[in-house]
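Notes from hallway chat w/ T.B., transcribed later so I don't forget. T.B. wanted the structure written out for a chain they're using in a teaching module, and asked if we could keep both sequence and structure tokens in one place. Agreed to drop them here.
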Amino acid sequence: MNTFSTVFATPIMTLVCKSASEINPVIHKTIKGMATDRPSDDRGRAHVGGWYSRGGFLSRPQPEIRLLKEFIQGSVREYIAKAGDNSTAERTRLDIHSWVALTQPNDYQSPHVHPKSQISAVYYVNVPDTPPPQGNLVFVTPLCEQEMSFVPSLSPSSMSVKPQGGMLVLFPSYLRHYTHPFYSGEDRSLVVATINVG
């Protein structure tokens, strides 16, 4: 019997929040205010430049942040279902750890993963319009050996995502990723979350 299987697939999903135009200006203003009021939490970060908060951002009571949290929770359940596990998506408890970042021209993140979590989420609040690859989020294959030999067009070794305001990107926390710097425009703000499935 002939068979064909695609194994070791890496699920990456992007979605756009329908409420982005309403909630993003308020969230961006909140992040900028936080960056003015307190120093960057740089412990264990992969960033070069930029300001990063401590955890707990999505626990804030602001209506716009509550709406964003609901959007992320629903999107994570959809992500799990699309990855092929409908039963877990319906009944699972999501343990979410979240923080925010504010970056400026020339800031970037070096390649890194998010240990001690299963799913990672990046929500883009305010994104300056720059030509690619400036500001792009790049994922690197977790299968190191595939770079040596397999057909490149069938098995790329990286994937690049051009962010836009209101975009949510979901991916496995083991997936190595980095960002390109951008060189002009206003501040970029984003919400990052790591999720464990209970």
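Follow-up for T.B.: The two ends are 39 Å apart (CA to CA). Might be a good example for the class.
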